[in-house]
Recover the amino acids of this structure.
């Protein structure tokens, strides 16, 4: 296999040289501290590294302005302590009113992923601007002697303005990384900023500058690369696109927004790729690998840095004084503000989301606190400042940084959001010139991994069959952070102006006189000349996207069978693979004639047809330009896998990607035997923060209304289910039965699963449950294998005993389930029942009941002892 490293503009080599030269000089840099930032190393610093590590003193493109600093002095002299504390608290728009803004002097708000004005997914642009206006007017109200400081509103626009219907969505960062085109990244930032400005918002929680070192991490697609060279090259460009050029007249104009480099620091380097976990490596590794994106972002003048949920050397980043204060604000000289992440301060030992002075004392400037009870945090901070638990010098430093960012962004001079240049302009959202940039990004991000006999590019005038569940599914091709937080629950009509992959193919083929037929399952009447199959990962975002290994859908072979079915009929097969990370797809590669990693391309699916088809003259229309910035695994257990590792042995190395001029020698004989994974053998996870493939959550009401859970809250006739927080954001599900008749919640799959080996291995169904209201009628724990095939255990007494007792872990041996369809009188031998499992976990009752569950799994050997007694 030939390692095709990208040499366009000698980009990779040049960036490597720049980065290595930059880092080699780090130890000679002196601290660039100011009198507002503590310069003495804390006790944490002494334990942070075994040897002294100097971080670079960054020269920002945005210089301190003495006149602006004087204005801040004058403003702070007029502020009460209550007004200062208000600047430190950032509630979520669902939990705050204009009256709250005035009463508590709130300095900023956010909308979480999927949160919209009025909680209306289809909120219009005018609704966003109107809400922004109402919050702004409340913040600048000077009645009762208030100073009246303009509020900031932040949003997660990580690949375009994902929360707003009709916005332009770009490929996620993993795809942008593959373009190797920094100038294009800057254009993406400019477009994103303009569309945010159309909503009246001021602030983007982007770019993510993580260096993803383990592809099992559910946010790997938010990283440009596994290697710091690309991340450093892109981070500054994205910041300049969002904010404008620091020090120029274009900096933070009304066509730009405040940018945020996140998540400081090491979010892409956790053990086993677990989100919010422990970052690995010593301080030099932290600096040289995970610091790269911050160096260029700070150079470009980024105004905000977001703290990470992660820990490093046993200290949570939201409370890491050495890294937040001594390193970021001290050695690197960052004079903007540090914002927290979704109650991340609550992870600090001894803290809660509503009481955590340790975080501001460590260097946090704004608490992101989406809890409904956020006012309690305000009151606690106020009291702690009065009593000296939080020094006034630290309060004043945080407020100064916040005001500095607001003044640099012109918020004191612009007036209400609705009066700004782009606010409310429908022609800005999804503008043709914006979509053109996104379409170019799609074209340049595609990485061709296989092209047997030069099948691609295809002639246009052919009979083309387009198959697979991603072919005409804009939600799937957009991925996470698209309309909803996890990117789930969307249909094509939720993306007006967007183009599905099939639509793009159909336009190209039919315009040339060919035919393009859509058939998700690959069926056809007339045999096609070629089949294009679009398949891959379903949308996911942080936490819920974590996986235990890199095998693609290890328990669901439907995509592979589709490829094999088509190929067995003598049809050439082109695979277009949607994913947020490299995955072990040896079987799918073998079953394909051509295989292209298309990542998560966003709303402009037509960019794919631009590349995989020839032009009207029969020549190459656009070449395959994408090159891997993540190494592709040879085995499903190859995590982590990064360029430069000892014994580096990928299937496709960093930098690989075929162009149309390259001869492909891959063949169809890649090893298909995956390494036996302990996780797959010993623990079958069914629900871990979300349903795991192939399972989905559904509720069935007493009117036989069956609804699959594709949004945060769904309701049927006799019950409802909602995503709630247990230990992490939306990691549990609450189910409430209203007592109006039979209702069922179930984890289900369409394809029967074989549990016989688990039964023979003395396995148990294990899950965590909390009962807030006991059942008023008999309630069954059900193991199901079809409409007339279920095994029920009376679970009523257990649930009543759990009421009000908090979280409980339940272990039920599989052998305890009666091996028959007892409630239908359909007897089955145990072996037949356990080879046909469709619902491994289900609760059924006709009464009222209020429970929350989490972490459902089948564990081998867990039915030993008490669990096996079936009591």
């Amino acid at each position: 296999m030939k390692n095709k490293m990208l040499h366009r503009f000698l980009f990779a080599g040049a960036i490597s040289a720049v980065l290595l030269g930059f880092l080699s000089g780090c130890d000679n840099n002196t601290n660039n501290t100011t009198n507002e930032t503590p310069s003495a190393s804390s006790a944490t610093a002494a334990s942070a590294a075994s040897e002294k590590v100097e971080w670079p003193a960054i020269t920002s493109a945005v210089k301190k302005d003495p006149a602006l600093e004087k204005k801040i002095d004058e403003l702070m002299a007029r502020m009460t302590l209550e007004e200062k504390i208000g600047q430190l608290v950032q509630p979520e728009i669902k939990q705050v009113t204009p009256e709250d803004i005035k009463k508590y002097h709130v300095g900023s708000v956010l909308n979480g992923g999927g949160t919209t004005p009025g909680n209306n997914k289809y909120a219009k642009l005018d609704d966003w601007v109107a809400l922004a206006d109402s919050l702004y007017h409340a913040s600048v109200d000077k009645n009762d002697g208030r100073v009246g400081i303009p509020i900031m509103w932040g949003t997660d626009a990580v690949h375009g303005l994902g929360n707003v219907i009709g916005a332009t969505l770009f490929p996620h960062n993993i795809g942008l990384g593959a373009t190797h085109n920094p100038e294009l990244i800057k254009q993406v930032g400019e477009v994103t900023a303009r569309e945010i400005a159309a909503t009246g918002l001021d602030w983007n929680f982007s770019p993510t500058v993580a260096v993803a070192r383990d592809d099992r991490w559910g946010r790997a697609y938010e990283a440009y690369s596994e290697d710091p060279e690309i991340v450093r090259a892109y981070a500054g460009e994205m910041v300049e696109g969002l904010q404008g050029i620091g020090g120029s007249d274009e900096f933070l104009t009304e066509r730009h927004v405040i940018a945020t480099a996140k998540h400081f620091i090491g979010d892409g380097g956790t053990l086993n790729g677990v989100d919010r976990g422990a970052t690995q490596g010593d301080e030099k590794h932290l600096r040289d690998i995970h610091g790269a994106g911050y160096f260029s972002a700070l150079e470009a003048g980024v105004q905000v840095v977001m703290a990470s949920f992660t820990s490093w050397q046993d200290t949570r980043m939201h409370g890491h004084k050495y890294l937040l204060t001594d390193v970021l604000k001290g050695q690197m000289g960052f004079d903007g503000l540090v914002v927290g992440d979704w109650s991340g301060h609550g992870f600090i030992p001894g803290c809660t989301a509503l009481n955590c002075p340790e975080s501001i004392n460590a260097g946090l400037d704004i608490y992101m606190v989406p809890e409904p009870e956020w006012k309690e945090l305000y009151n606690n901070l106020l009291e702690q400042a009065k009593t000296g638990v939080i020094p006034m010098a630290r309060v004043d430093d945080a407020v100064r940084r916040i005001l500095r960012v607001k003044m640099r962004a012109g918020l004191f001079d612009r007036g209400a959001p609705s009066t700004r240049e782009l606010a409310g302009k429908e022609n800005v959202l999804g503008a043709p010139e914006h979509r053109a940039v996104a379409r170019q990004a799609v074209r340049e991000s595609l990485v061709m991994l296989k092209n047997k006999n030069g099948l691609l590019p295809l002639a246009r005038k052919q009979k083309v069959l387009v198959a697979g569940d991603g072919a005409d599914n804009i939600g799937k091709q957009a991925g996470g952070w698209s309309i909803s937080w996890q990117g789930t629950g969307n249909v094509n009509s939720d993306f007006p102006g967007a183009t599905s992959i099939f639509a793009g193919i159909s336009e190209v083929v039919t315009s040339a006189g060919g035919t393009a037929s859509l058939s998700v399952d690959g069926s056809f009447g007339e045999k096609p000349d070629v089949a294009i199959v679009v398949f891959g990962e379903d949308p996911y975002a942080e936490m819920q996207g974590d996986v235990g290994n890199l095998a693609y859908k290890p328990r669901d072979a439907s995509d592979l069978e589709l490829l094999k079915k088509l190929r067995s009929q003598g049809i050439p097969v082109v695979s277009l693979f949607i994913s947020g990370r490299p995955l072990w797809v040896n079987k799918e590669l073998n079953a394909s004639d051509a295989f292209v990693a298309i990542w998560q391309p966003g709303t402009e699916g037509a960019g794919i047809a631009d590349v995989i088809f020839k032009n009207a003259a029969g020549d190459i229309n656009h070449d395959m330009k994408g090159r891997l910035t993540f190494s592709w695994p040879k085995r499903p257990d190859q995590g982590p896998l990064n360029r430069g590792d000892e014994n580096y042995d990928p299937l496709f190395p960093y930098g690989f990607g075929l162009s149309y001029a390259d001869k492909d020698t891959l063949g169809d004989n890649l090893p298909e035997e995956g390494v036996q994974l302990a996780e797959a053998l010993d623990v079958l996870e069914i629900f871990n923060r979300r349903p795991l493939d192939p399972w989905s959550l559904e509720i069935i009401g007493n009117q036989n209304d069956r609804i699959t859970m594709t949004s945060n809250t769904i309701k049927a006739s006799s019950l409802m289910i909602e995503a709630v927080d247990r230990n992490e954001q939306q990691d549990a599900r609450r189910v409430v039965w209203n007592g109006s008749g039979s209702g069922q919640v179930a984890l289900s799959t369409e394809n029967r699963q074989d549990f016989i080996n688990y039964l023979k291995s003395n396995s148990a169904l294990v899950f965590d449950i909390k009962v807030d209201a006991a059942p008023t009628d008999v309630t069954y724990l059900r193991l199901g294998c079809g409409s007339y095939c279920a095994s029920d255990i009376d679970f009523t007494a257990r649930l009543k005993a759990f009421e009000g007792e908090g979280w409980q872990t339940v272990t039920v041996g599989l052998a305890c389930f009666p091996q028959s369809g007892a409630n239908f009188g359909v007897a089955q031998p145990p072996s037949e029942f356990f080879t046909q499992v469709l619902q491994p976990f289900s609760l059924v009752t006709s009464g009222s009941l209020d429970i929350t569950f989490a972490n459902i799994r089948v564990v081998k050997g867990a039915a030993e002892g008490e669990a096996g007694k079936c009591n």
